[in-house]
Predict the structure.
Amino acid sequence: MDFFDNIFTNIYAWLAFWLHELLMGWNLPKDVESALVSAIMIILVIIVIILWMVLMVLILIWLERKNAARIQDRVGPNRVGPWGLLQPVADTIKMLIKEDILPENADRFVHTIAPMIVMMPPVLMFAVIPWGKGMVPVDLNIGVLWIIAVASIGTIGVFLGGYGSNNKYSLLGGMRAVAQMVSYEIPQVLTIVPIVLMVGSMSLVKINEAQSGWFGMQWFVFAFPVGTIAFVVYYLSALAEVGRTPFDIPEGESEIVAGYMTEYSGMKWALFYLAEYFNFFIVCVIGATLFLGGWNGPILPGYVWLVAKTYALVLLGMWIRMTWPRFRVDQLMNFAWKVLVPIALVNIVLAGVALPIFKMIGF
Amino acid sequence: MSTPLVLTYVGFFVMAAITLGGALMAVSARNLIRAALGLIIALIGIAGIYFVLEAEFVAVVQILVYVGAISILILFAVMLTRGLMKRDLPAQNAQWIAAAFISLAMFAALLYVALSTNWRAVETQVAGDLIPKLGTELMTTYLLPFEAVSLLLLAALVGAIVIARE
Amino acid sequence: MLDEYGIVALFAFVAVVFPAIPLLMAWVIRPKKPNKSKRATYECGLEFEDFPAEAQNVWVQFRVQYFIYALIFVVFDIEVVFLYPWAVAYNALGLFALIEMVIFLGILALALAYAWRKGLLEWT
């Protein structure tokens, strides 16, 4: 069992050792050599993580379309490859060879960098996620705050996308998207505080380790009522933060065409689309890490547990998306400020009160 | 110099270049949104400098509050205006000479202070996780400022709301 | 310590480069045949050209509501900055810290209540 649990860390160690041996021949100074080895290894890790994420997102897109089809009593994609599994690949090729249309009077520079800015936060967030036991690119002692801070950069990209297109619908959609994202950021941020409080650290690895008791089943979501409330608030605000139905006002096609994406086509549009799925996947990973024990679980290797939990959250999100109608703007804002924020605030105080009791029963 | 120190220098100069480039863009852009974008880039550069200085909490707060929140506030304020958004605004007006003079004087003063101060270098590395210590200090030594902050925030919000509603 | 942030810096570098790669690839492969009607501003099937000059100005003046939401957001964001160190240190501090934080949160809840009472959280 240990073999499978440590397989990736062993491969990493073996590769680093091999690289070290290779560089020995060059007779570099010791600190230069060790810096070079760790830099090359980290770049490898980043490439592996990004490739893995792209694979995950392609699967996610296929899964979403197939799921939507099943729920709506259709078949879904079934032509390209077995069960339509190669559909996302075909879509990617299509996106690559599409013409990129820049509308008249659009701000070319802003129009181009907006989708790039939107893609940045998920990549930066990958840095602190513990993907399995010992499988964390970098364990920052401010991990949670890093995730929150970096996530807020995406808002600027959305705004610039809306502004740069020189289109009323884009502008309206961009402004609405930003208003929604900032409103839901607050409950999302507040609801993580009880978890930090119970662990006494912001490091995601420490948060994971704190949930390793009870044969890997001591998850914070079971810390009734504080953890459970925190999880529900987190999940709802995360769905809203990434703008998925029923919280997809910014792209409400019945009102403002496609929101800030109206004037985008080709690869730039694909980047927005990809970023949406990247973000959706990453908030589910973070939800699994903070509340569902991360890589903790009996019998199976850690990374399998994390992926399984993530997909559970992903499928739940898809189910919600397929079954709920869209909120109105006012309902959306009210829900954030008048329901989620007060609940999150009360939950923080509750966590402070309940902590000694949790300590007593071994949480 | 040892490798980490060289890397520190590289990091500092890269971040300083980003900050200066962003600041230049902010003052020279003829379009308000682009100017705001330049400001955001400069703020990110400053956060990077905090990272180089190993003040990671301040750096993250810089990103969270300035890049994530204040910039949105600025962008929204621009969106509230009418007519200001025409594509090409003149990047300078009649006061630019005075402004440049004051900025230069300010810079000279800062430079003088920086050069004349006897900076004491801390030899030992600050050890371990400083966040708990920060929290403890905030709750004990700096309790009064801490509570005053919440009052300040309340006052700021109420004041802003009153102005915005008029 | 700086080693950690060296890794973060590499991630930041990749975050800037990674989105540029598909854009560059597409730039190489894709057709480039713009024409006037392709580049026209999208207007739900109407011809943007035919609009009177003042309607062609896409600049919409936004309501002050957006700004107020952003303001409340900033206030709560700053509050969060103080909450996290408190939460990390709470284990060592005990009841006294809880009372302090309840006061802090109470004052900010007052801000929220004020905005609520004044009808500023109403999206009209």
Observations:
- The first helix of chain A runs from residue 2 to 5.
- Chain A has a mean pLDDT of 84.
